[in-house]
Amino acid sequence: MSAEAPAPLPVTHRFIDEVGDTTFYGKGKGLILGQEGVSLVFGMGIVKFNRPITEVRSEIIALQQQVASDPLLNTIPSVARRIANGGFFFHACKDSDDVKTVFLHYLHGLECEAEVVIARKVPSLFIHKHHGKDDEFYADVLSHLIKSRLKQPRRLVLNIAERGSSTRAKVLEEAQTKAIGRAGKQWAAGELKSEVVFNVQTPLREPLLTVPDYFGWAVQRVFEKGQTRYYDYLRDKIRVVVDLYDSAKYEGNKNYYDRKNPLTAQNKIGPSAT
Predict the structure, then answer these.
(1) In this structure, what are the phi and psi dihedrals at residue 92, rounded to the nearest 5 degrees?
(2) Quick check: 241 and 263 in contact, CB under 8 A?
(3) What are phi and psi of 164, to 5 degrees?
(4) What is the pLDDT of residues 128-161, one digit of tens each?
């Protein structure tokens, strides 16, 4: 009698989007950190939904349709452009205050949990740790979101926002390899039982990606602007924020911020990340 086939692994979904950019240099290799359109940090947010994702997706689609059909909102240029280019979706850095209010109120009551990793854009690290390559920088940050999620026996589907060459299979595989290496320092290899699958999406096709987009943006505002308003409003949903390259606070894991130790305006990194 043949042995029974092993039971299929349970499937869980997480949703990942990035915030900021990986740009360091402009023409002539001059540093342009903090200049117009260039962020001081790059980060990623990951979200777990504590309700059926089909329900949450339907609710977000309904909200998007509400904005797209509202004559007070659908004439806002950023909204009109998205409608013309295939359909409106929420996008924190481009949404007007009126549109943000619609989605922030929804997120405030949504049963979910977020984690955000913020990487200060430090030129020396970019050159020596990431060899001056955007994709290596991206993979390194992503690995820190994955490393603590590899132990549970499951098929872990990471729905991740498409981002040019950074979400090519090779880069995502590099992030996974780094994550396994980091997890291996805490657990034995045999304990890492998750099967990771990447599902590259756009927020137009997958509205659930708009949720990590907003959480990441709210956290970025603290680091870039010292503005805590949006972070404070969503703070109960954010399990942890990691200030990845704040080496001065590594001792005692003081670069980790949770609900009991929240970010404040003092986390603003200032006009320069160097």
Answers:
(1) -55, -45
(2) yes
(3) 50, -135
(4) 999 999 999 999 999 999 999 999 999 999 999 9
Q: Tens of pLDDT along 220-255?
A: 999 999 999 999 999 999 999 999 999 999 999 999
Neighbour-count burial for 180-215, b at 16+ CB within 10 Å, e otherwise: beebeeeeeeeebebebebeebebbebbbbbbbbbb
Beta bridge mates, 145: none
Write out the two tokens for 218.
Answer: 């709210």
Half-sphere exposure of 199 (CA within 13 A, CB side): 14
Four-CA torsion 247, 249, 252, 254, nearest 10 degrees: -130
Compute the Cα dihedral for 208, 180, 258, 247 and give only its sign: negative
Residue 119, token pair as written in the block: 């990487």
Cα distances (Å, whole numbers) of residue 159 to 28, 54, 179, 254: 37, 14, 17, 29
Residue 157 β-bridge partners = 13, 197
For residue 4, pLDDT beyond 90: no
CA distance 153 to 1: 27
Q: What is the pTM of this model?
A: 0.94
Annotation: CATH topology of 11-264 = Nucleotidyltransferase; domain 5 (3.30.420)
CA 53 → CA 57, 163, 173, 186, 225, distances in Å?
6, 23, 26, 31, 33
- Note whether 159 and 196 are within 8 A (CB): no
Q: What are the boundaries of each domain within the chain?
A: 11-264
